[in-house]
Write the structure tokens for this entry.
Amino acid sequence: MLSVQLVAGVSLLYIALLFMVAYYADRKQAQGKSIISNPAVYSLSIAVFATSWTFYGSVGKAATTGLDFLLVYLGPSLTAFSWWFLLRKIVRISKANNITSIADFISSRYGKSQWLGAIITVIAILGIMPYIALQLKAVSTTFSIITGQPQIHLGGAFLPSHHPGFFLALILSIFSIVFGARHLVSSERHEGLVAAIAVESLMKLAAFLTVGVFVTYYLFDGFQNIFSLLQARTLCYSTV
């Protein structure tokens, strides 16, 4: 088990790094220089699709069903091929009508109905709240597993809550407000937010590759050994 101080310290350093990256990107944008105007950064920013729950969901799915877990990503991957014409049209419509949300986009297609926009907003909130709760749960569970402590205690300091999810929600709220929600213009690219997501995606990629190499070549003897054991286990279950 790692100490709470070590985990909290490393987490704060990582968050500070993301804040610095986002601040640097915003400064460069103010100077008329963009650091995200290239395909590599854009591709990395799309990896925001892989959230903290992906680690538990995908790994758990792969552990219980094998290669069937790839079907979860089949839909998003196939949808990406439609971006050439679909996403371009969505962006063009959004810029022309100064649209900044899903509710605005849908209501604008039906006479800019305020009632429809309000209904879509409520549906979006109700739909995203359980998903955000999953992300907070994933981080809290990870903290508990690594440290063996379900809560964070900072000496005698008064805190509204000692739950790790509270700190995560607070930090994410501040980050979203500073580098995202304070600009509600359709032409705003939120370069700081995109740059931070790209850096985060690099961290995710490095982490997954490290775990993959460790499991493949340390716990097992390579890909051939893994697939041989998988085939043997499949035959064993099929004969039972």
